[in-house]
Amino acid sequence: MTRLLPSRPRGRAIAVAVVVGVALVLVSPLFGRAAVTGMYRPVLPGDGLTSGCYPLPGGAQLDFPYVLRSDSDVLDAHGLHRRVVLHYDRVDGAEAVARAEAAFEAAGVADRVGVSARDFDVPDDYVIRGEMVLDLPLTGRESDDPDCENLFVTKRFTPDLPDRS
Amino acid sequence: MTTSAPPRTERARRWWDDLERPERVLVGLGVAVLALRGLVYLGTADGILIGDEYYYLDAGRAFSNVVRDLVTLRGPDLGELDAAVVGSGWFMPGMSVVLAPLYLVAPGAPVPVVRAFAMIVSTLLLLATVLKVRRTFGNAPAGALLVFPGLVPTYAAFGAATWGDSAAGLVAVLMLCHAVTMLREVREHRTISWRAGLLLGLYAIVAVYLRSSVAVFVVGVLGVTFVTSLLLAARAERIKVVLGYVVAGVVFVGLLAPWSLAASLVLDAPVLTTVSVPTVRANTFGDPDAVCLGECDLGSNIWFSPLRYSREHARATGLSEVEIADEMSAYARRDVTATSYARDVVDNTMRYFSEPARFATLLRWSHAPYDIVPLAEVGTNALFYPSVLVLVGVLAAVARRGFDQQLQLVLLKVGVLTLLVQPFVHIAGPRYWTTMAPMLGLGAALLWQLWRDRADDVPRSTGWVARWLTLAQVVLTAVAAGAVVVIGTLALL
């Protein structure tokens, strides 16, 4: 079969390529570092309830693992109030409610909050166990941290956000 | 009078005059491919990055920084490597390794330069594959490869992009060529060299590093060639055959291990290649409103919203985000039935084959001197849909004569079938055909040869090897037909 590429200079070409390659590697630090954008692995936003932006009433702290899902102000027959939804991990609904109520009790705000929970229909060995709804008095933003503008921290989503799912 | 060396043009003319007609056609097609790629590059040059390209570029930058650190005898920035290279464990880093030399020389390379670099590398890979195909199978298959996918404008546009799909497809063809050459040698000498095994493993791992979806292909080809080698080798040489494949396996596993270990350590979960499959399956076959055990957050897409949810739970519990993602996926898929799955597979398959030119629209540069989209639409559709017929032909055909043709058809069936696993496990899109495309070019040439030789007076091949290759073809055809019938029936129920 005829060679479409000449074979003789191939060895020379490889040798030149290796020398040029090594030289470039050696001088590469002089050109400066490449700036990684991190766009495909963003820093994980903080937890909205402990970030100080919109804390729980009385500064109550929940002592079981949870993930904040949404935090919104809703209007119903009893007026405006705050509705916080979270998913709790590792504990069942009854225990999560008991622990949340104890936390509000300790913070002295138990009479102003409502706590309810619904276990997901999942096997017992699941990490994510259910959804808790906290019915709370309205809270204003309590921190100037720019993170409080981040919807993925506060989870105070507005209906105009695109649902790209 | 002394004769000096002939001038360059004279040498070029002599080279051209020495070429046979088929070779001149090949050179002409090669020039056409280069011209098309130049044209398409200008039409995509300053386009923006699309989706996963952000990952490949970032990881390429991080790799170049590692080299800088090593040259200056500093420890590498592990935090940067974790975030930019392993990231969320969604992608294999092969394309980033390819991009690293560019960032080594030009750390701030803008998108047009990255696209030019990608175009040069992908063109060299395409031409190298064509030459390898020519050496292995002859002029006609090499020419077929230059036409399809070489002359497909959208395929050329992918050449300027940084996803690994098309490159993985070309390396898969290199692996296929090597497998055929190796088996021919086994047939001739009735034994195998460990070097052949080493090279087979090398091609396999390079393909997987470029795109993890070719892992099924790699396993299929290794399986078929292993059995065929055993049948071809002399009884006393079989242990050597086994050893050859052990070498292939050691090379493959040895080169995959650094990645698997790094990804497993960073993500705190066992990772072999990538970990995107749970979320992919949830999004593809599950209830979209239950992926985050309910709806995911508004304001970001179907990949980043579930990712954030899994990372948030991982932070709250101290577990791995991969473990949470598995759980989310299982929950979203709890109501999947055979019929819902079959319907989703049909939808995916439609997506796999519809709009083959879609990415030309995404990749185009809106201020280019001309719009490549009309060219891409016409050129891509005109070549792509006939290639779908080739796909059907490759799956349906059974070659009964000639070791080479039988072997090639078995390997192409394995290739096409394993790459078509994609719509069964993954949301399909108009990017995945580029992995299979070069195999369809080879398939077109093979079908043409089978058609040309149909009346030849060559007896059917006999013996164990021929029987095995025929059986393999029949089984693979039956698997393809069976999958179509089962999925089709279930989807209609």
Largest sheet of chain B: none
Query: If you consult CATH, what is the topology of the domain at 57-154 in chain A?
Result: Gyrase A, domain 2
User: Biggest sheet of chain A, open or closed, and with what strands and sense?
Assistant: 4 strands, antiparallel
Structural class of chain B: mainly alpha
Mean pLDDT of chain B: 94
Terminus-to-terminus distance of chain A: 55 Å
Task: Give the % helix of chain B.
Answer: over 70%
Strand runs of chain A, count: 4
Tally of DSSP helical segments of chain B = 22
Q: Key features?
A:
heterodimer; A: 165 residues; alpha+beta; Gyrase A, domain 2; 4-stranded antiparallel β-sheet; B: 493 residues; mainly alpha; membrane (chain B); Glycosyltransferase RgtA/B/C/D-like domain-containing protein (chain B); transmembrane helix (chain B)
Description of the molecule:
- The complex is a heterodimer of chains A (165) and B (493).
- Chain A has helices spanning 8-27, 93-106, 151-154; strands at 66-76, 79-89, 114-119, 128-136.
- Chain A is α+β, with helices and mostly antiparallel strands.
- Chain A has a domain at 57-154: Gyrase A, domain 2.
- In chain A, a hairpin with an 8-residue loop joins β3 and β4.
- Chain A starts with 7 loop residues before the first helix and ends in an 11-residue tail after the last helix.
- The model of chain A has no long low-confidence stretch (mean pLDDT 91).
- Chain B contains 22 helices and no strands.
- Chain B has helices at residues 8-18, 21-44, 53-71, 78-86, 94-105, 111-137, 139-147, 153-159, 165-189, 194-210, 215-232, 238-267, 277-285, 304-317, 321-332, 338-353, 358-363, 373-396, 403-419, 422-425, 433-452, 464-492.
- Chain B is globular, with a radius of gyration of 24 Å.
- Chain B starts with 7 loop residues before the first helix and ends with a helix.
- At the A-B interface, α1 and β1 of A face α2, α3, α4, α5 and α6 of B.
